[in-house]
Amino acid sequence: EFEKIQQFLRFPELELKEEVDMFELPFTEGLSLFSDGEQGIIELDESMAELMQVMRNPERSDIEVPKHLQSILKEYQKTGFKWMKTLARYGFGGILADDMGLGKTLQSITFIASELPAIRTDNKPVLVVCPSSLTYNWLQEIMKFAPEIQAVVIDGAANDRKKLLDELDGMDVVITSYPLLRKDVKWYATHAFHTVFFDEAQAFKNAGTQTAKAVKQLHADNRFALTGTPVENSIEELWSLYYIVFPQLFRSLKEYANLTRKQIAQRIKPFLLRRLKEDVLMELPGKEEWEEAVDLLPDQKKLYGAYLAKLRHDTFKHLDKATLRKNRIRILAGLTRLRQICCHPALFVDGYNGKSAKLEQLLQLVDESKQAGRRVLIFSQFTKMLELIGRELAVRDMPFFYLDGNTPSSERVELCHRYNAGERDYFLISLKAGGTGLNLMSADTVILYDTWWNPAVEEQAADRAHRIGQENVVQVIKLMAKGTIEEKIHELQEKKRLLVDELINTEEAVLSSITEEELRSLLL
């Protein structure tokens, strides 16, 4: 048994003798020993067992929810709040990985509200780091649920940001974006924070990126990552998140890589909280999803076939490992062109005057939704495609809102308010820009106009409507061109889905892990 303990601890310098029946080591080392060990070898003493029970069952703790939020939080949200408080009490970090739309922001705000006395006494504010599109959403949610919290968004030009950062006296919460954190990291790295919340924490799932290096420089008593997709492509991404929020949990990536998936799951269990909608929102109406296959029009087929033949000829010259990596950007551009032709040839051919089968199908769906009194969100990754759709809606006297990556964060919040108030029934949204941070529960139909490499992104788009507050069944319709790369990408996604919980985050990530055989299947 002592040999097994030494193996679990992986401390070659630690010599255990049989007459020794007790030794001291840091809690996280003991935790890894307990979680990686075999039944019967390791036993927890009473105090340690009690601590583990509290961490794994936070709903049983006597932690009190702030009074003004008790009637607002659902039971599972109270549990999430207590889980955060428990981890913070012992100086542990964690990942709140609730399904999209379950209120990760509200649970975090509740934690901040409960810590206000300590925040103000220690003069250490909370830092929220999130995508640029969510900064004002955080500010709005704080003002709505806990107006006693003094919060500020750090944005604008460099001089404006410097002025805001120099005048933080009395501020409880500082909100900034990942891009601006990178720019201002020297300032943030020299200040201490009570807690840091990393929203959409998959932003630093790759430990080698500039974003990951920037967030690693932050100093805080507590760290929490918020993400509905803690693993998108590989299991190493989970290590990258814990390397930031709780680095003591795993000594190194090398050690992590040597653990089995079961061992990893056991070790992270107290420090990752994930609830799914179907498990906690029994009152939430269902979500009906289906694909509508569309035949390309004759002119589209000719253009698609001609470009596909050219791409096959050019690509198959570069299908060994070395040249595939070297030419992946060029290959990606070719695949994008094929997808654009499926959407509308006008995205590929300047001055194209023909029609698009998918656009015709979309307009039929829109007409049917109008007759049925449904409210519709339309997503596309191509802004030019959204412009073409907008023109057709205008011709049909169907007013709509529009949002893409150039829409300011503050304006996004206003557009959501106006849409939810019923001012217009249609909302055209860029998939990557609007996939997160929008609460559009007054919509009951989501149309995904084109196929995206990562199904998690498509699910996030659908969850703009399918979330707390939705009163109707949400229809999610995915348009797909028959016999094209869109069907092949879908097949590839399903195959990859078996390997990881979620799929590839970007096209580049797809091409970095795709095999020669898979690339051939996309083009044949």
What does this protein look like?
The protein is of the alpha/beta class and 524 residues long. It has two domains: 66-279, Tandem AAA-ATPase domain (Rossmann fold, 3-Layer(aba) Sandwich), CATH 3.40.50.10810; 287-523, Rossmann fold, CATH 3.40.50.300. 48% of the residues lie in helices and 13% in strands. It has 27 helices and 13 strands. It has helices spanning 2-9, 27-36, 46-56, 67-70, 75-89, 104-114, 116-122, 135-145, 158-166, 178-183, 185-189, 210-216, 236-245, 253-257, 261-268, 277-280, 298-315, 321-326, 328-343, 357-372, 383-395, 409-420, 431-434, 455-462, 485-497, 507-513, 516-523, and strands at residues 94-96, 126-130, 151-153, 173-177, 192-199, 219-226, 272-273, 287-294, 376-380, 400-403, 426-430, 445-448, 474-481. β10 (400-403), α22 (409-420) and β11 (426-430) form a beta-alpha-beta unit. α17 (298-315) packs antiparallel against α19 (328-343). The longest helix is centred in the middle third of the chain and has 18 residues, at 298-315. It holds the Pfam family Helicase_C. Keywords: ATP-binding, Coiled coil, Helicase, Hydrolase, Nucleotide-binding.
